[in-house]
Amino acid sequence: MIDKMNTTGNKSFIKISFVIIALAMMIIPAVTINTKKNVTSELDNRVLVEFPQFTVFNDAFISGLNDYVEDRIGFREQALAAYQIMNDELFHYLVHPLYEYGKDEWIMTKDWDSIQTYHLDLEEGFADRFAAFMKQAQGIADENGACFMFLLIPNKETVYPEKLAVGYNIKNQESKSDLIMEALDKEDVPYLYLLPRFQELKESVQLYNIKYDAGHWNENGCFYGNIELINYLKDNYDETIEPLNIEQFNVDTEIAECLLQSKYRIDEDIPVYSVTN
Fold first, then answer.
1. Which pLDDT tens digits describe the chain residue by residue (277 residues)?
2. What is the chain written as a DSSP string?
């Protein structure tokens, strides 16, 4: 009889504990919701949704309220980080609003960037309008006694298309950047496009990190990109500009422990430049 009572008591305790834990998991995130204005999320790299304007029986308000709660509920980023780590450990799948796995453990920016880089379904006339805008900017610079040029820095996917995830199927087609360069040529706007030089350099220099900060060049890319920029300015505008050379910098490496804007662990060696003088 005593054993039966103990068993019943243990079962009741477990049930009550489960209910308390379940309620806590629902209540604590709700009461710790972030209500501050103009909050930026490092994980998403964007401003969080603001509380929508109230209107009775309005679908837009309900939708906005749902987005507000999803963005600001307590412990959101911790839960997303744990979910990200679990998916990577169990399925080798990178759950992140900005990044995705490419080939050979490379991390690339997600399809919103990668696909648009190559996709030719531009809004009709976009390249021509962009070039006309640059021509207008050049005219304003000329009127004020200044020189004008347009610099286009290729992204990681453009320089290393062979590392894109399976399924992109990029085969030497014109990119959005190519179309813009063609339009700039028609308008006779001076520009520098770093892709040709980066394609030459990438066999000997790591211009973008394999994982860390997938959206931008690393400090090697920054250094060699600025060499090209300074040489262009020197050749076309001012021959007195001093050239840039590696002796002006100390080149070292440091460990990037986590992926930028993420708790995802990478421990990657990345280049670091410091000025010698």
1. 555 555 555 666 666 666 666 665 556 555 556 666 776 666 665 666 666 676 666 666 666 666 666 666 666 666 677 766 776 667 677 777 778 888 998 998 875 444 444 445 556 788 899 999 999 999 999 999 999 999 999 889 889 988 988 766 555 666 778 888 999 999 999 999 999 999 999 999 999 999 998 888 999 999 999 999 999 999 999 999 998 989 999 999 999 988 877 777 889 999 999 998 7
2. -HHHHHHHHHHHHHHHHHHHHHHHHHHHHHHT----SS-EETTTTEEPPPPPPP-TT-HHHHHHHHHHHHHHSTTHHHHHHHHHHHHHHHH-----SSEEE-GGG-EEE-HHHHHHHH---PPTTHHHHHHHHHHHHHHHHHHTT----EEE---HHHH-GGGSPTT----SPPPHHHHHHHHHHHHT--EEE-HHHHHHHTTTS--S-SSSSTTS--HHHHHHHHHHHHHHHHHHT-TTSPPP-GGGEEEEEEEEEE-TTS--EEEEEEEEEEE--
